[in-house]
Amino acid sequence: MSRNGVIASVLVAGLLVSGCGTPRFGALGPAPTAAPSSTTPSSTALPSTAPPSAAATERPDPTPSKEPPRSPSTTPPGPAGTRDTVTIELWLVRAGQLVPTRRARPATVATSRLALTELAAGPTPAEAAAGLATLVPAGIEVTRITDGTATLRVPSVGDPAERRLREAQVVWTLTQFPTVRQVSLGGTGPVGRPDYADLLPPIVVTSPTAGERVAAPLVVTGTATVFEATVSVRVLDAAGREVATGFGTASCGSGCRGGYRVVVGWRAAREQQGTVEVYEVSAFDGSRINTTAVPVILAPGA
């Protein structure tokens, strides 16, 4: 082999090796056995599923964000006569914490207006039954988006905790768009997601969402800050029987929030109501703690 051929072979081998890597998180198999917990499940909840293939954008801001889009996506063109849709992420509240959900609506360039309108409209019946609510009133609109900052004014009514939750709903919802990195609420300066991160529960579930029809295998995603980064999942049928379990590790361990992805499957003879529970196994007594329960519709599984 010539000298040039040897060099080319070495370069190709080096590229193949550098392209391989070990994922930081994934499904690890059956969940650890946990004793029943008397703790009431906390809210469904974030941070986000993997970004969809295409993002909705805002017309007012000519300068795109340097951050990748977090949630909005558009569907491919459908049959003649159908309209494209955009999927937006909304942050509702339950038990004083932020909870994410999604809406698919006809595509529009005014995505911030659409998101705030949906946020003010509040939860669906299935979400309301799961305890989700909104504190954002109708009529709030973005007046401008400049250099990645959306400007609007949020009513300062209610007690301080309620006002802060309302602001957090708006900030977390608007900053999903690639043109919005911060939000100016008419206060001392622009704010972002980190300013309200303490309003997230220990375990956030971004998929599935309340009332969603799910089929096996189900991919459960979200973010968590739990002991040794271990997130456990179980699926309950309409009778409360455990039909599937699994666990995985978040991309960051105790003391920091990381993303997780757990795949579970089940066998069911008929479509029925069900619940997906995502929780942490207590290092103290093995009980389920920091539980996030998501009511769903279980499709039959083979």
UniProtKB/TrEMBL annotation:
Residues 62-79 have a biased composition (Pro residues). Residues 30-57 have a biased composition (Low complexity). It comes from the Bacteria. InterPro entries: GerMN (IPR019606), Gmad2_Ig-like_dom (IPR018911). Residues 30-83 are annotated as: Disordered. Residues 112-193 form the GerMN domain. This is GerMN domain-containing protein.
